[in-house]
Amino acid sequence: MVVSSAPGKVYLFGEHAVVYGEPAVPCAIERRARVTVEERDDDRLRVHAEDLSLDGFTVEYSDEANATPDVDVSESLIQAGIGYIDAAVEQARDAADAPNAGFDITVESDIPLGAGLGSSAAVTVAGIDAGTRELGVELSAEEVAERAYQAELDVQDGEASRADTFCSATGGAVRVEGDDCRAIEAPDLPFVIGFDGSAGDTGELVAGVRSLREEYDFAAETVRNIGDIVRYGEQVLAEGDVEELGKLMNFNHGLLEALGVSSRSLDQMVWAARDAGALGAKLTGAGGGGCIVALDPTEATETGLKFTPGCEDAFRAELDTDGVRVEES
Length: 329
Ligand code: PMV
Fold this sequence. Notes:
Layout: E1 2-13, E2 25-39, E3 45-50, E4 57-61, E5 68-69, H1 75-95, E6 103-109, H2 119-134, H3 141-155, H4 163-170, E7 173-177, E8 180-184, E9 191-195, H5 202-215, H6 217-239, H7 242-258, H8 264-275, E10 280-283, E11 291-295, H9 300-306, E12 313-316, E13 325-328
Parallel strand pairs: 3-6
Antiparallel strand pairs: 1-2, 1-13, 2-6, 3-4, 4-5, 7-8, 9-11, 9-12, 10-11
Bound molecules: (3R)-3-hydroxy-3-methyl-5-(phosphonooxy)pentanoic acid (PMV).
The site of (3R)-3-hydroxy-3-methyl-5-(phosphonooxy)pentanoic acid has 13 residues, from helix 4 and helix 5.
């Protein structure tokens, strides 16, 4: 039996603009998905998932088409969850050249689903790591990242950026520009996250920015300006100037707002964080709903967010310098 875990992530800067070739900086956070994998002596898969906003379910099958859950939860949620696990299993079988390996798999996650915190990437990364090790193969973090990216491409019909999977596999702060992903230096970042309990539709939000950008030169300029913030932000990260980073996060949020990807609840949480004295705050991920990220070394922002209408959950999550790791074997 092997247990591996992998972190979720926030975007310090650059979401949406990264789709048009600008750089972005995702950062791993100390919220993890843990995947336990035990090889079976047949070719079946038994998946038990907890805390995936699903109240726990178990499903046993030999191929995805015949997956039948033993609890009454929506078929689409099950298929969404199982899709990533299945793709991770395929990658592990391929890496170990064991096409018929069967597994008992347990997924536990403290990352809210579909909220811009990279929950599916974390499950995929941890699943590939645990699955390959259980079969006696040790991949580097970069190899796990590449296989997790391929798994996400399979599940998401060819629409996936490398940001989430690379960041989850390697940990720390990461710079992504097209296919080029690399670790960058960062100081301790006191992240506070606010979650409105909902999830935006990434495809729709990306399409909205695309049409604004095609229609208006100033919208295309706004996307380039986000890229400028990221380029300057990288220098500020290297200098460790957390106050200046906060100002840049505020600026980045304003530009995302102008591109139409914020929402009333995200704006309310961003302002609550600023009112509480956060150094800066912005939405993270695709937007439309989901999470904001603020920088605050004190307790004030977390407390302020907990009293903010529209904020369902607020928690602290420092930058996680660890990527995927083995918890038990
Ligand atoms: O919401 P997330 O964490 O899936 O992030 C989406 C980020 C976008 O830049 C909007 C899209 C992308 O694929 O990079």
